[in-house]
Each structure stands twice: as structure tokens, then as C-alpha cells.
């Protein structure tokens, strides 16, 4: 679980990987981040509020739940803004092997992260991320409205690992490796 936490050591972005094909990974990353926000961050906030406003939470449990859902909006906005601005990815994006960079592959600026994340709620219109999904699907590099206006793109990191399907690099099993280490 700790390998989900982004660090200041950022991988090199693979700008060629930006495409609508990443939308599934992006959706799973968003669900992971929403769960973290609600179950970890928001729960801690609600615990403090329940101590302070115990009578309200006992008298109006439905209203308290609605308040927690509404409170998730600014929590999630701040969470995604800070992680993407400072570390280029949220824990969900790290788990899904994604990062957010500017068009030229450099780190996000405060302005870029603010625009990208502020427009996240416009992309939710009219319901369930419909506008963002349609725009990203029709874009060659998978950009939603927030990405377009902030000049950002979601990409995969570069990797030095050989492809498993590369005909020039034969696959070696663990048995082959251990035999060559014994012989050499």
C-alpha cells in the first residue's frame, strides 16, 4: 500500500502515451482517489465535527451524511490539486501508472494545476463526467476540458524495461537466469 504514495522522485513522462486509451486507467485512479478522500481524509474531518456537533449528527443523520458528501467536493479538489502540483500524480494515478505534466513534459505550475482541477467539476456536467469523457474520447491525446485549458496531459511514465512482445529480446525465465549465473 505504501508504494501508492507518490514521492518527489518523478519518472520521465512518455508524451507519446497520451491517448483516449488511458481513460479506463484514469477512471480507476479517480475512484481510488475518491475512496481515499472519503474514507481517510473526510472520515478524520467528520470525527472532529461529530465531537463538536454531536447533537446535530444524532438528530439529523441523513443531513449529516449529505453534508459529508458535499464536503467531499472541496476535499477532493484540494487533494488532487496538491498532489498533482507538487508530485505530478495522486496515489490513484501512481497506482494506475499515470502522471500529469504540461504539454512539453515539464512539471505542472500552480496555475496549471488550479485550472485543471478547478474545471474537474465542469467536466462532471451534465452527469457522471459525461462532458469530460466525451471531450477526452474525441481528443487524440485524451484531454478533457481542464487539460486543454491548463495545457496539461495525462501520460504513462517512460520505462527501460524490454517489452514482453519484442521479437529481438528473447524472454528468459528465472531458470535460465540462474543457470547462466551458475555457469558464468
UniProtKB/TrEMBL annotation:
InterPro entries, alphabetized: RDD (IPR010432)
Top-level taxon of the source organism: Archaea
Database matches in Pfam families: RDD (PF06271)
Entry GO CC: membrane
Region (Disordered): 161-184
Domain RDD: 21-150
Primary localization: membrane
Name of this protein: RDD family protein
TM helices/strands, residue ranges: 35-58, 64-85
Subcellular location: Membrane
Keywords: Membrane, Transmembrane, Transmembrane helix
Membrane topology: Multi-pass membrane protein
Compositional bias per record (Basic and acidic residues), positions renumbered to this chain: 169-184
